[in-house]
Design goal:
By secondary structure, this protein is of the alpha+beta class. The strands form ten sheets. The chain has an eight-stranded antiparallel beta sheet, with helices on both faces. Strands 26-27-28-29-30-31-32-33 form an eight-stranded antiparallel barrel, surrounded by four helices. A five-stranded parallel beta sheet has the order 3-2-1-4-5. A hairpin with a 2-residue loop joins strand 37 (about 640-645) and strand 38. The longest helix has 23 residues, at about 475-500. It is globular, with a radius of gyration of 28 Å.
């Protein structure tokens, strides 16, 4: 076994690999850029080597710099994580030449599976079900139309070297096939330097389901069940679960056996993932093979008890698999939510800055828990478990240079329903402040009827949130629970205030028991009856709710029991009440005495400032260019400026016709959220 492993990555996955290496007694080496000198993975590793400036193309993906770090540290093996150099055959070749083990598959497998046309041909030869299509070289648009008619519309026109949605078009007619071919060809040439195009049948109502495979260098290969990855936004997975709520044992077995057959066809040795598109009739078609560890691997670990990182290291060291297919047992259900530094209220634009507060929920039985069906870990058998894979800490910064992932929150439970409920509570308990993040959106998905039923496709987010995410309207029953809790909490706060020292004599303040709670446009008149164990809240219509909690004023997280059911609230202080966040809703809750509530209705509503004649910066970023000047008339949809954030350029366009009155920023300026860039007459 190796004595020292270098992790050629950063962030969450680097921390994840370090945890397993430490468990195995293997020393670890981290690499870091200027932006990551204070990163969590650097402090966790036994050693750390600096490799260059913040941009990845000047540090993390420069093979020579990584190789120098390996020589400097004396590492015997390299784990590439995911992204960066993880599927780079030249990197695997460089390691081989240096006599350093690559904790991943052979370079030949990386090359074969890295090209979509080649991988599909290999899959067909290995007996893997593939989408009907044409894999040969397509000369021109007319040939593309002819092939599309032979396959049958709709068809998907795709770049062979494509990825991330680039060079991809769906065509429903001859005209769309003609246009799509040329657009895909141009986009592929510009993005990848490779304009080869292929055409295949477009699967309607598709689900994205992938099979985890594990192979050694001695010809052994197994599959570890599937992961459902259908909830995606712009081809980026957001929620994953294992197993899939859609598959039956027969389909799972067929998909698993074909995935292993494909892996063996390319002499695969390591952990890998074979992705399939599955239609409504459970017909499945090979999509691609990812020759690395997947982001969503924890859900497989949670239902199988197999530490995939450990297995990858053991395979790289030449060991045989000790697990056979008969040993693989899928126990319970696991769900993963990806927490991103993306603001859902601003169309998921990236958000960068300092994490002023980062308090994940307590982990229970973190890491693999079930080994061949036998419970291992801290949580009692049958109870829910929580795992949080992260690469950040409170006070750290989310950099503009890298992926916006903050953490991967996972829950396990004996049933899917229990795993979802555990995830709801975990999301409610997760405290993140200082940046925009998608916690509210994830909470909304966990409560969405389509997700709860398991009846979702890859179009889920596009169909259910076509206009973006604008928060959640909670049902009245949930609002009553929150109102009762806030009334009880406010009473505790008021009692605290009566005990403040330095009061005037003969001016004792008394706390009443009648309150009016305003939340989400609703008013609840309540009477609070308190005792040492909690409070009984009686509503005007006669309903009563019993609230118990050890919350004290100033706590930003309240864990309550409302009529025997748990309720977790994020609590912020506002004048005369609280800012409450729960289940994807962000609520302003006012708690007033009856007379105060009457007077509050007479107060004029404070309107937000008029920004209709201003262009505001939607995210923290850098001005790349300004496309207009003072006095210029602009038309609706015209480009006004370009802002760069997290290495992505965002073009801001005019929402309506107007004349530029003032330009407040120029190229190279760093802007904060809502800073005024341009003013109009």
């Amino acid at each position: 076994m190796f004595n020292k492993i270098l992790i050629a990555n950063r962030g969450e996955i680097a921390c994840r690999v370090i945890k397993t290496a430490r468990k195995m007694g293997i020393g670890t080496v981290a690499i870091y850029s200027d932006a990551d000198k204070n990163a969590l993975h650097v402090s966790m590793a036994d050693e750390a080597v600096h490799i260059g400036p913040p941009p990845a193309n000047q540090s993390y993906i420069v093979i020579d710099k990584v190789m120098n770090a390996i020589r400097q540290s004396g590492a015997q093996a390299v784990h590439p994580g995911y992204g960066f150099l993880s599927e780079n055959a030249k990197f695997a070749e460089a390691l081989e030449a240096e006599g350093v083990a690559f904790v991943g598959p052979p370079k030949g497998a990386i090359e074969s599976m890295g090209d979509k046309i080649t991988s599909k041909k290999i899959a067909q030869e290995a007996g893997v079900s593939t989408v009907p299509g044409y894999m040969g070289l397509i000369e021109d648009a007319e040939e593309a139309v002819k092939i599309s008619n032979e396959i049958g519309y709709p068809v998907m026109i795709k770049a062979s070297a494509g990825g991330g949605g680039k060079g991809m078009r769906i065509a429903w007619s001859d005209e769309e096939a003609r246009e799509g071919f040329q657009s895909s060809k141009n986009e592929a040439a510009n993005s990848f330097g490779d304009d080869r195009i292929f055409i295949e049948k477009f699967v309607t109502q598709p689900r994205h389901i992938e099979i985890q495979v594990l192979c050694d260098r001695h010809g052994n290969g197994i599959y570890l069940g599937e992961r459902e990855c259908s909830i995606q936004r712009r081809n980026q997975k957001v929620v994953e679960e294992a197993p899939s709520p859609f598959l039956d044992p027969e389909t799972r077995k067929a998909m698993g056996e074909q995935a292993v057959a494909l892996a063996k066809a390319v002499d695969y040795a390591s952990a890998g993932t074979v992705e399939f598109i599955v239609d409504g009739d459970k017909n499945f078609y090979f999509l691609e093979m990812n020759t690395r560890l997947q982001v969503e691997h924890p859900v497989t670990e949670l239902i199988t008890g197999v530490d995939l990182v450990e297995q990858m290291i053991r395979v790289a060291a030449g060991e045989k698999l000790t697990i056979t297919q008969d040993d693989v047992t899928l126990t319970g259900w696991a769900i993963e939510n990806r927490l991103y530094a993306e603001d859902p209220y601003r169309n998921f634009l990236p958000s960068i800055g300092r994490l002023t507060r980062y308090r994940p929920p307590q982990e229970i039985a973190a890491g693999p828990m079930l080994v061949n069906g036998k419970w291992q870990g801290d949580a009692p058998e049958g109870e829910a478990a929580v795992r949080n894979d992260t690469g950040v800490y409170e006070g750290g910064e989310i950099s503009m240079y890298y992926d916006p992932m903050i953490a991967k929150l996972c829950t396990w439970a004996p049933t899917r329903e229990a795993a979802i409920e555990a995830m709801r509570v975990a999301l409610d308990s997760f405290e993140v402040e200082g940046i925009g993040h998608n916690l509210p959106f994830l909470s909304a998905v966990m409560d969405h009827p389509k997700f709860v039923s398991g009846d979702m496709t890859t179009a889920f987010i596009a169909e259910e949130y076509p206009d973006g995410f604008e928060g959640v309207e909670l049902p009245e029953g949930d609002l009553r629970r929150i109102a009762a809790s806030c009334a009880a909490m406010y009473r505790v706060s008021e009692i605290r205030r009566t005990r403040v020292s330095g009061r005037m004599d003969n001016h004792e303040r008394k706390v009443g028991n009648r309150w009016v709670v305003s939340v989400q446009g609703n008013e609840f008149a309540v009477r609070v009856g308190a005792d040492k164990e909690g409070a009984t809240i009686k509503f005007e219509d006669g309903q009563t709710l019993r609230v118990a909690s050890d919350w004290t004023p100033g706590d930003q997280l309240a864990v309550l029991d409302v009529d025997g059911s748990p309720l977790v609230l994020k609590v912020g202080k506002i004048s005369g009440g609280f800012r409450i966040r729960n289940r994807g809703a962000d609520l302003k809750v006012n708690v007033r005495r009856p007379r105060q509530a009457e007077l509050a209705k007479l107060m004029p509503e404070k309107l937000p400032p008029d920004t209709s004649k201003m262009l505001l910066c939607p995210m923290p970023g850098l001005v790349v260019k300004i496309d207009v000047e003072v006095g210029q008339e602009v038309q609706e949809g015209q480009a006004l400026c370009t802002i760069e954030a997290m290495k992505m350029e965002n073009i801001l366009r005019a929402e309506k016709k107007g004349v530029v009155a003032k330009v407040n920023a120029g190229p190279g300026d760093s802007l904060a959220v809502d800073e005024v860039i341009i003013e109009f007459e």
